[in-house]
Amino acid sequence: MSGVPNSSTGEAISQSAAAMPGRLQEARRGLRASLPVLLGFIPFALVLGAQAVQKGLGIWEVPLMTGLNFAGGSEFTAVRLWTSPPQLLLIAAMSLLVNSRHLLMSAALAPYLRHVPRRRALAALFFMCDESWALALADAQRRGIGRVSLPYYLGASAGLYLTWVVFTGLGAALGPVIGDVEKFGFDMAFTAVFLVLLRGMWRGMRASLPWLVSLGVAALTYRLMPQGAWYVAAGAVAGLASAALTAPREPQP
Question: Quick one: CA torsion of 73, 226, 219, 236, rounded to 10 degrees?
Answer without folding.
Answer: 50
